[in-house]
Amino acid sequence: GTIRSHPEATVTDLPGIYSLSPYTGEEIVSRQFILDENPDAIIDIIDATNIERNLYLTLQLLEMRIPMVIALNMMDLVRKNGDRIDVKKLSEALGCEIIETSALKGEGSGKAAQRAAELARAGVRANLPSVFGGTVEHAIAHIEESLEGKVAPEHLRWYAVKLFERDERVKDQLNLDAGVLAHIEEHIAECEKALDDDAESIITNERYAYISRLMTACVKKKARK
User: What is the value of pTM for the model shown?
Assistant: First the structure.
């Protein structure tokens, strides 16, 4: 599709997913499109009534370091239910601009598209939120060093995290030599030993712990009878 105010822009609607893990066809299609096509900007549409589940994908998209705006959809229902989301605080925590939208009422969608086009033109990338603890960050930093010059700079963080998770598709795609893989595995194993868990679970647990802190700080649910 296109944006009326920006006819030069092409909009691609990707499948609705909750993660960029390679477990479903929709997830694989979406992540390969982003990696291969390297879009100028992303509009991440979040269901504001189910924000906790949606933020997991948001954190993964932010790791791709592509200009991004969050469309916080169904805000009309949030207000109707008496719930409150501190959009300013959530935006500051994620390092990403958030636009309140309601597809049902036709509110905010044009503004989200306009901001995405502006961010794409300016090349403004969101700041990375501080999701992981020091032990994990130390391991990921070493992996990033091993990947410098081997992947697009804007995707360095995402690839490093996926290698930490031992994502076989990413490992096969990068075709790293045995010495580099051994160095990476050494840091992963050290982190697993320190935290007494497997690498993929470590990443998942720390992301959800971060999301839980965001929910406590930014989302207030009305008491239900």
Answer: 0.92
